[in-house]
Fold this protein.
Amino acid sequence: MRLYLAGPMTGFPQFNFPAFDQWTERLRAAEYDVLSPHEADPPEVQAIARASATGDPAEIPPSDGPLVTALRNVDGVHSCDGIALMDDWYKSAGVLHEIATAHRFRIPVAPAVMWEALGAPTANGLFGGSQ
């Protein structure tokens, strides 16, 4: 079962990459195929983001700015069987957009801790994932 990991980035030090890294590892340990959006960023953008003290989008090159990222993330949501919400997800306009996209296409959305507790085999049985 493939999960899209959704959480806030803007305004968080290092664009919240450390928390994304932790959740990606935890969900993969629970046997999910995880699409963590920060892993899709080009290496040079990842380096800028990890060095950011403020998580200010103005630090990101326009070639990988908010519109490009939003479109890539919508594609990511469409490629997954569920959305795993990190802490503070409600602080992110991007996550709200991802949730709206998921609801539109009847993709289940739940806290990452719930997905972790279920584990991929059980979640796949409940939600009928593609894997």
Summary: DSSP finds five helices and four strands in the chain. The beta strands are 2-6, 33-35, 82-85, 109-111. The chain has one domain: 2-127. The helical segments are 17-29, 43-51, 66-78, 93-104, 112-127.
